[in-house]
Amino acid sequence: MSDVDAHDPDEFSAGQWPDWSFWKSHPDGSGVRVVVATSMAVASLALLARAQDIAHGTSPPLPTSLAIGAVACYVLGCMLTPWYGPVARRRGRVAIVAVMFLLGMAPAVVLASPSYLTDLTYALAIGLMLLPLRHALLLGLATVVGQIVWMRLAQGEVAWASWSTRSAASTPACASWIRPSQRKPWSAVRVR
User: What totals of helices (H) and strands (E) does the chain contain, helices first?
Assistant: First the structure.
């Protein structure tokens, strides 16, 4: 009969730091790292559309340049973090996640537009990869609540997709098939 209080070393715990040591011991560990880093790099290239959206915006030149620089650093961080983050020590992992969140929030803060906060999904993915699950989930919850509060205060509504329809509709090739929603606001809808 086994002891119920004894914990298996391979048992999952929400408070346990992710163990990426299999990359070191696996015979093809660097191959696995290349696949993970490449997939994150390809996904982060979608942020280049964000830089284009910022460049074509109506903000003054200095904030626009700062925001584009932050997006470029964010893309670079998204590409390098899957390679270096898992082998970093705990403090290094926390620092990486903090820097990625700061870079991800920079365009929203510099341009005073909460719609840019949707790019924090990349930083959240990095947080899930590097932090204990319990901390990563709290970080994700705080991020979503912060986005909702800022959107409600700034725009009066939560508009998650405002960027995609705005940037797509501003492109002439897409303007014919993507139109912003013509829905009535909640205050105009009557309940019978």
Answer: 9, 0
Angle in degrees, CA 67, 69, 70, rounded to 5: 65
Residue 52: in which H helix or E strand, if any?
A: helix 47-55
Q: Which residues contact 156 (CB under 8 A, 6 or more apart)?
A: none
Task: State the Cα–Cα distance between residues 80 and 170, nearest whole angstrom.
Answer: 32
Q: What is the pLDDT along the chain (192 residues), one digit of tens a residue?
A: 344 444 555 566 777 787 777 666 656 556 677 777 778 778 878 888 888 888 888 788 898 999 999 999 998 898 888 888 888 899 999 999 999 999 999 998 998 888 788 888 889 989 988 999 889 999 999 998 988 888 888 878 777 655 444 444 444 433 333 344 455 555 555 554
Which residues are CB-contacts of 94 (< 8 A; sequence separation ≥ 6)? Answer: 131
The CA distance from 113 to 4, in Å, is 52
- pTM of the predicted model as reported, rounded to 2 decimal places: 0.70
d(CA 115, CA 57): 13
Who contacts 25 (Cβ-Cβ below 8 Å, separation ≥6)? none
